[in-house]
Amino acid sequence: MPLQDQSFVRRELDFPGSLRQGASGAAVKRVQEWLGFHGNGTPVDGKFGPGTERALQGFAARKRIAYAGEVGPAVWAALTEPMARVLAAAAPANKPYPQLVRWFAEQHLSVHPIEIGGANRGPWVRLYMKGSEGDSMLWCAGFVSTVLRQAAEHAQRAMPIAGSFGCDELAAQAKAAGRFLAGRTVAGGSPGFAALGACGVFLVRKSASDWVHTGFAFDGNAESFLSIEGNTDHKGSANGFEVAQRARKTAACDFIRLG
């Protein structure tokens, strides 16, 4: 089943029915999360009170859409538009798979997915973690797996690895598929970073059998590379709050070849 049709995606995007003051529950929580994403923050408590009403008024005014005290289909579509747009993105034709992966990663980056409502929570985390969220739901590998799947569906081909929520499992899948590249090979050997082609996956190495963070790697050399990664921040944390582009040290990582 295509990513867009998965039940955990439809729960984020499908209109839940009209909502107004006095309503409560999961649909109200989603409205509050999206208001926070758009900069019209209000407590994410699942209760549609005066604060949520005021935030909706501000959102509607900024987006220049009609709002008369009720969240209807048009307001809901405006709230969820960033995710809907990323999932419906149509890549240019005839791109090799590694280039497609980078292109789709850039589409996610362009809307700046962030956590909302607490650590490792919110609609973007649930997208990348197939409906799950919570303190323990580190989502960097889920972000990687989602983008790999999106690119594979566009190319009508199988994913190079199955994908996982865990960095160690991504490494194991890459080794089993003959796609794992040790950092010392990429940093010091030949062809070096060029072995990854237009885009690969990096794995931040804690030890020879333990990896603690992952994302996409490109435009690199023996010393450094650029990345697009989820669950990070401006410090490069492995438990941050956003999708961001960073620069990283090549020798500190191992890699997965996608082409």
In a nutshell, what does this entry contain?
By secondary structure, this protein is an alpha+beta fold. Helix content is 39%, strand content 17%.
What this model shows, in words?
It is a single chain. With 259 residues, the chain is α+β, with helices and mostly antiparallel strands. The chain folds into 2 domains: 84 residues, Muramoyl-pentapeptide Carboxypeptidase, domain 1 (Orthogonal Bundle); 166 residues, no CATH class. The protein has 9 helices and 8 strands. The longest helix is centred in the middle third of the chain and has 16 residues. The protein is elongated, with a radius of gyration of 20 Å. The model has no long low-confidence stretch (mean pLDDT 96).
Average pLDDT level: 96
Number of helices: 9
Low-confidence runs: none
Could you tell me how far the N terminus lies from the C terminus, measured between alpha carbons in angstroms?
Answer: 24 Å
Order of helices and strands: HEHHEHHHHHEHEEEEE
Sheet-strand content, in percent, reads 15-25%
Keywords:
259 residues; alpha+beta; Muramoyl-pentapeptide Carboxypeptidase, domain 1; 2 domains; 6-stranded antiparallel beta sheet; two-stranded antiparallel sheet; 8 strands; 39% helix; 17% strand; elongated; Peptidoglycan-binding domain protein
Chain-wise SSE layout:
Blueprint: H1 7-13, E1 19-20, H2 26-37, H3 50-63, E2 70-71, H4 73-87, H5 97-111, H6 123-128, H7 140-155, H8 167-176, E3 180-181, H9 183-188, E4 200-207, E5 210-218, E6 224-232, E7 242-249, E8 253-256
Antiparallel strand pairs: 1-2, 3-8, 4-5, 4-8, 5-6, 6-7
